[in-house]
Design a protein that fits this description.
By secondary structure, the protein is of the alpha/beta class. It contains five helices and nine strands. The strands form two sheets. Strands 3-2-1-4-5-6-9 form a seven-stranded parallel sheet, with helices on both faces. The chain is globular, with a radius of gyration of 17 Å. It starts with a strand and ends in a 7-residue tail after the last strand. Keywords: Oxidoreductase.
Length: about 230
């Protein structure tokens, strides 16, 4: 069977890193990741499956360069997992406009840019999986920026789903509950032992690629056992 070619956008930490590790354990998968913590590279021949490569999503020229390089290496993609993003928390009166702009650019605009640039590699059966959050379904105090970005990625994915139906491209938006990642660093009142391990979330998300082609999981919602923390 021909191997599946997978891109993990945001493979440096958390769920993205766990997904890269998960797909690397599957013999029928070729996976490339990228993040701000990745390996430096120059040519498309430097991009070998199994590793996480450098790309700063806040630098649009670097995003374009990475996408063009990947298109010169691979002629198709079977899945793209959009797992990147950071948290921005605090009351509205204490949020700085430049922090807001940077947050939206990373968490939302970058997904649009990558999708637009890599759609030529997508065809019938390709999975585009966008990681949102329970904050993409409801609001939480001192989370206006984060919730706005996660509502935004969900709206983008749901509209894209309708747009790409004729091509048979699968689009899923995942509303994830609390997962043990760096986003919780410095936030009081949360016990990481109550959260889903990133490796468990990656195991579940990887299975979306191997679902039968007869249906599409438009929206996926999962929580840790204690629900919303």
């Amino acid at each position: 069977m021909e191997s599946r070619r997978i891109l993990v956008a945001g493979a440096g930490t958390g769920i993205g890193k766990a997904l890269l590790d998960k797909f690397n354990s599957i013999s029928e998968a070729e996976v490339i990741g990228f993040s701000r913590k990745g390996i430096r590279w120059e040519r498309h021949s430097d991009l070998e499956a199994g590793a996480n490569y450098y790309c700063d999503l806040l630098d649009r020229q670097k995003v374009f360069h990475f996408c063009n390089t990947l298109k010169s290496k691979w002629d198709r993609l079977d899945a793209i997992y959009f797992t990147f993003g950071d948290g921005l928390f605090g009351s509205v009166e204490n949020l700085k406009l430049e922090d807001w702009d940077r947050h939206i650019a990373l968490n939302l605009t970058s997904a649009f840019l990558i999708t637009k640039e890599l759609l030529p590699l997508c065809a019938t059966g390709t999975l585009l999986c966008y990681l949102s959050s329970t904050a993409g379904k409801q609001g939480f105090p001192e989370s206006t920026a984060y919730s706005a970005s996660k509502h935004g990625i969900a709206g983008f994915a749901k509209s894209l789903r309708e747009e790409l139906k004729p091509q048979g491209i699968r689009v899923s938006v995942v509303y994830a509950g609390a997962i043990d990642t760096d986003i919780w660093a410095g936030r009081a009142g949360f016990n990481k032992e109550d959260m889903i391990p990133a490796s468990d979330a990656a195991h579940f998300l990887s299975e979306l690629l191997y679902m039968p082609s007869s249906f599409n999981l438009d929206e996926v919602l999962f929580y840790p056992p204690k629900g919303i923390l």
